[in-house]
């Protein structure tokens, strides 16, 4: 009898299903129904479709990406080499050996997880927007961030750490080069780092960091003199390089990944899909704006005419609601955004309620005027000229109100369709919310939950 999937496996399966569904929909020629293909739109969303494909491939490969950040000469490359157990990346005393992000694959001895380590240039080497853009792009891809320091945290490092925090990814602070400090100084710096993590002078990172996420290492220890005594009684002094002190960081990473690595992988892929779908929706709404405007006016005119000529008040209300729902579905088809009849009805109710009573007033006015119009219609059957005049005035007024209401519904629906494109039953936003609701309290993801929601 097979065992039920673990929570992490369930999260991974949910994310995989969500991305497969999104990719299937957005790459389908049928998503725009009978509307002709728009070459400008296809070109505009190509990069976002590639993002969806890459996110799904990352899930299928089950590879965790860990990115190292820090200022120049903090030993980021040395930390990567120490984790790998061999010198793959160049290190040295020169100011900033690493000039661009580099990736290397790390398979820990346990073999349970596949890890891609990403080494980055010093954050103070690249100027202005170029630095920020590089950091955003690498952090966007990463599932976990290692922020390497070599002393008490500086103002520049604190600002860089706050910028990385905006990526909403788990962060470990790696206090490197501890071999350069006496034990007393080392502990003082460690305590200062803990102070930064738990709050200092109104500026703190406690929402995403705890003291458990600060690790001390010596990734590339400096050579030390060793006294050598020879059999002939001679004594010499040689320089010997101690092995890296990296086991605590290795254990911390592997414990974290075994406990919540696949959940991190699932959430990161879903956030990438969420952003890609939002971009697709935004570009679609912009490029098809003219067609959408014509569609909204068409429904507004037809609804106004139908309500005006219909003599029965109650049917006016039902017909108006049906027309509004049909408009929402028609806009979704024009944009090629997934929406069901139930979701269209839910969206209509949301728009009516959020309009601050304006559209509710339209329905109420339509009902009152419709009743008067129906009474006038009944009276006019007995050839009362005054009743015919009342009927005509009521019909024009009600038709105008109905047409305006549909136009308002259409314009509001454009905004809601763009913003809510990922909120379907298996949409990324829905699955993200579901996963975060299941997370255990003693995890990094749980501390990030408020920022992720």
UniProtKB/TrEMBL annotation:
Name of the protein this chain belongs to: Small GTP-binding protein
Lineage: Bacteria, Bacillati, Cyanobacteriota, Cyanophyceae, Oscillatoriophycideae
GO-annotated biological processes: tRNA methylation; tRNA wobble uridine modification
Keyword set, alphabetical order: GTP-binding, Membrane, Nucleotide-binding, Transmembrane, Transmembrane helix
Gene Ontology MF: a single term: GTP binding
Topology with respect to the bilayer: Multi-pass membrane protein
Taxonomy, superkingdom: Bacteria
Boundaries of every G domain copy: 65-177
Keyword presence, Transmembrane: yes
């Amino acid at each position: 009898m097979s065992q039920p999937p673990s929570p992490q496996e369930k999260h991974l399966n949910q994310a995989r299903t969500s991305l497969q569904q999104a990719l299937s929909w957005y790459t389908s020629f049928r998503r725009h129904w009978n509307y002709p293909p728009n070459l400008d739109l296809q070109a505009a969303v190509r990069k976002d479709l590639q993002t969806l494909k890459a996110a799904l491939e990352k899930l299928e490969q089950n590879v965790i990406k860990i990115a190292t950040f820090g200022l120049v000469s903090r030993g980021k490359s040395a930390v990567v080499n120490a984790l790998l157990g061999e010198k793959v990346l160049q290190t040295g005393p020169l100011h900033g050996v690493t000039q661009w992000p580099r990736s290397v694959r790390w398979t820990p001895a346990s073999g349970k997880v596949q890890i891609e380590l990403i080494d980055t240039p010093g954050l103070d080497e690249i100027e202005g927007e170029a630095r920020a853009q590089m950091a955003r792009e690498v952090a966007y891809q990463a599932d976990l961030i290692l922020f390497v320091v070599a002393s008490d945290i500086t103002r520049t490092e604190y600002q860089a750490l706050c910028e990385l925090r905006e990526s909403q990814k788990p962060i470990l602070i790696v206090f490197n080069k501890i071999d350069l400090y006496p034990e007393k100084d080392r502990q003082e710096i460690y305590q200062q780092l803990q102070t930064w993590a738990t709050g200092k002078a109104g500026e703190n990172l406690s929402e995403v960091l705890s003291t458990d996420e600060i690790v001390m290492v010596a990734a590339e220890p400096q050579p030390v003199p060793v006294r050598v005594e020879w059999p002939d009684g001679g004594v010499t002094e040689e320089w010997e390089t101690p092995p890296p002190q990296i086991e605590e960081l290795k254990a911390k990473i592997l414990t974290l990944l075994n406990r919540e690595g696949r959940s991190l992988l699932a959430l990161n892929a879903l956030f990438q899909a969420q952003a890609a779908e939002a971009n697709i929706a935004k570009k679609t709404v912009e490029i098809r704006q003219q067609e959408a405007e014509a569609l909204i006016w068409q429904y507004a005119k037809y609804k106004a005419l139908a309500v005006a000529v219909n003599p029965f008040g109650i049917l006016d209300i039902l017909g108006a609601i049906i027309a509004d729902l049909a408009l929402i579905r028609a806009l979704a088809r024009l944009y090629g955004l997934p929406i069901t009849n139930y979701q269209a009805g839910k969206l209509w109710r949301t728009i009516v309620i959020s309009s601050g009573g304006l559209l509710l007033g339209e329905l109420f006015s339509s009902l009152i005027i419709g009743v008067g119009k129906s009474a006038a219609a009944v009276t006019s059957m007995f050839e009362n000229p005054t009743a015919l005049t009342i009927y005509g005035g009521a019909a024009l007024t009600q038709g105008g109100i109905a047409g305006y209401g549909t136009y308002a519904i259409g314009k509001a629906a454009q905004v809601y369709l763009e913003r809510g494109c990922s909120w379907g039953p298996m949409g990324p936003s829905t699955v993200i919310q579901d996963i975060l609701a299941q997370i255990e309290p003693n995890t990094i993801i749980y501390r990030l939950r408020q920022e992720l929601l």
